[in-house]
Amino acid sequence: MDMVSEAIGSVRAGRANGRRFSESGAWGVRFPGFVGIGFHIVLGGQGWLIAEGIEPTALRQGDVVVVPHGAEHGLCHAPARLADLPAMTTTAEPPDPRPDFAFLCGAYRLDRGRLHPFLRALPDVIVVTPDYDGHPELRSLTVLLEDDVAKARPGNWVTRSALVDLLLVHVLRQWSEGTGTGDGPAVTDPAIAAALRAIHGRPRHRWTVQRLADVAGMSRTAFGHRFTAQVGTPPMTYLTRWRLAQGARLLRQTTDPLATIARQVGYSTEFAFAGAFRREYGVAPGRFRHHPDPLPRQPRAAAR
What we know:
The chain is 41% helix and 16% strand. It has 304 residues and is an alpha+beta fold.
């Protein structure tokens, strides 16, 4: 199954962010850990990726660094210790017209909810040197995102989400192809993949463990054990989280009434949906929909 599309689709309940950085001289910046997925694209110059558990990695123009589940990391003019780098700030600075190193950042930050198992199963950081000749669309997307983050304009949230989506999909696809991991490490069992396709394709269906086991062609007990081993959560827990993640996306991306969204994701009433949503996200659906920025609360469950 197409786990890349499923994983990127699951983070759309968050907010897409983007920013261009310019650095010169002796510089370094540390990006604190967060819940979500992000990337850096090197626009020019040379630098180093700094992260725990790996040797400093040289970066050159065109390289892309992906942080699949928001691990703390840094960028620097030379090899360094991550703890020695100053934390990133949001202070606006005038762009350097001729920087030694320039890079473009994009991210989906999840103020609520959990990351898709596919993303949690990936390495802390991934470095990709894309084939821009074979995939010129990636270069075009980079130019478009750089223009999009240059200044605030009406519709930025829509365009930024679309561009971050596309960049992530293209880069993860090339990484998967280059490493031979195909759809990634999250699901390798065809029977479990069939059950996941059923959940994703028909979230409003009245699924039970037995009905999902029937889809997988397995006994209920064997299916439950194998699903948990492959996906990392029991079937009904995954189903609930998937339904609520789709509900969160619809709350952010549509103006559909709460009752309509509840039915679309498998809840018989808006009250049942609202109760489950509050337990998972820690906030009522209405506040989640109308709050323009991440809410000041950390998710209550492990995100990695």
